[in-house]
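Sequence in, structure out.
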Amino acid sequence: MSAARFDLLVRDGIAVTPAGIAAADIGITGGRIAGIGNLARAEATETIDARGLHVLPGLIDTQVHFREPGSEHKEDLATGTRGAVLGGITAVFEMPNTKPSTLTAADLDDKFARAAGRAWCDHAFFIGAAAENAAKLGTLERRPGCCGVKVFMGSSTGGLLVEDDQTLAQVFAHGTRRVAIHAEDEPRLRQRKALAEAEKHPRAHPVWRDEETALAATRRLLALARKAGRRVHVLHITTEEEMALLAEHRDIATVEVTPQHLTLSAPECYERLGTLAQMNPPIRAERHRAGLWRALASGVVDVIGSDHAPHTRAEKAKPYPASPSGMPGVQTTLPLMLDHVNAGRLTLERLVDLLAHGPQRIYQIAAKGRLMLGYDGDLTIVDLKAKRTIEEKWIASKSGWSPFTGMNVTGWPVATVIRGQVVMREDEVLGAPVGKPVRFAECL
């Protein structure tokens, strides 16, 4: 009997599979996982020695802003996805608040055309919700490569905004896929903006965009979603009160947190980083950070997304609150979370659930997010013991900075594999961009 032959064989790694963590070889043929287990007798065109390393399913970042079209001076699809694969991310979901906003089939087609031959990782695009396209969302959300509908209840970067209950109800009434939502109450934001203008320092950011601004919007959207019978995915939750509320609505609501909100806390981050710590919703006090970790430990949190939202240093240097909100993050998510694993704040299995299994489950991604036979050959290979410092020279984003510059971490991505092709190894991007649109089971 002849030995099995694979296109790529990852030998002697410690694999994180749905069945648990165990030593295993992984063979990939034709872009799909074709063997898991003891493949000592197998042959391969290419081999990776993974001794001492952990092999994770390819990790998925379900919230990035790559700024193309319209703001390519701060990021584009090529540089954003390059940062993703350097950070061990194999697929990204990109947000619709570009210029123009992604509101039509033509807008989606334009983004896929721009990504073709330039995106280093696989990708999907959200369609933005607005009054003008609400009735068409049921058709738009099912276009190939569309990951679903995104709603901005509070103003952030860009002009997309659905602030009133009537329009939000119209959005929920058209379509069936899960709706991703930025939940901040726009009327309250307008009422309180003078607080930020008076303080003139980003330490006022969580005062302006306070806890009630977030909680009021989350209450409203849950009531409307339940009335409509529509599933929702509530993004970048920042308060312990919201987590308690969302725990009561698990039948219709799933939950995202960001590495920033799990790692930074106010007021220290604003005193140290100034506007570089400014994002929406804001970094809050330590009691909220602790509340997010409790929610993560208890299973309320389903997904970690980076909310990668870069701006140039010059833009960030504008006096607060004229300075824009957002920070780069797609490249640093995995190093930060591996450091939290090493600190004992979560297990490696839970990290994989949050960055692979959870995204696959919530968005019904076809054949990604798990180390299983027949799934795409996407792998994120990490060294849990590697001690590194996050340096700006490593950051691929056009923004050129990170709020975590100088931070020492334990745990680092050493290789990124997409459909059996090694696209990053030892901090070096390899070959040419191979990214393709993500497929979704709900749209097949």
